[in-house]
Amino acid sequence: MTRQPRKAESALTRDADRPTPAPAEPTDLAALGKAATAGAPSVSAPRPAPDALPALQRIQALPSWLVGRVAARGRSLVAEALAGQGVKMLHHAVLAAVSEFGPVAQADLGRKLAIDPKDLVGVLNDLQADGLTLREPDPRDRRKNAVTVTPAGRDLLERCATVAEAANAELLAPLTPAEARRLIALLTRLHEA
């Protein structure tokens, strides 16, 4: 079988969307993998021990590298879906926070989202110009602005929720529903640790 020539690409991004070999030696990570795929058919041959892999493949077999690549793909899918609704990811996050916490003081919103105040002002200006939020003097402290979501903003959030869920379904499509639930449970444990 002859190999087709590949496009020039960075060694670190090559095959980024394909699974990379994981250690075959019994480790806690291997046990997690077995637990996550219990009952699923085996889809790969035995894998070499990590120290038997070339240096780049060792990096690409690390959980941190794999999680980072999957996260980048997930962000890309969601960003593309949100762009179809005319909104950027940061704008969507701010709009969602305003919907959840509003009416909320602009300064409090920045602290809750850990966004630099100058960046937040720009995002809020964009959202208000698009008719998605309102900034009015806070009745509790007239020196501050309180931000609220408009009906148009609520409608956009509903549309964004639908397309973001579809993007995440695309991300998880290679997994069975049980595997996807297990992955989410494991990621949640890691996030909360």
From TrEMBL:
PROSITE patterns: HTH_MARR_2. Residues 1-18 have a biased composition (Basic and acidic residues). It comes from the Bacteria. InterPro entries: HTH_MarR-typ (IPR000835), MarR/SlyA-like (IPR039422), WH-like_DNA-bd_sf (IPR036388), WH_DNA-bd_sf (IPR036390). One of its GO terms (biological process) is response to stress. Residues 29-40 have a biased composition (Low complexity). It comes from Streptomyces hundungensis. Residues 1-49 are annotated as: Disordered. GO terms for molecular function: DNA-binding transcription factor activity. Residues 60-192 form the HTH marR-type domain. The gene is nicR_1. This is HTH-type transcriptional repressor NicR. Coiled coil: none annotated.
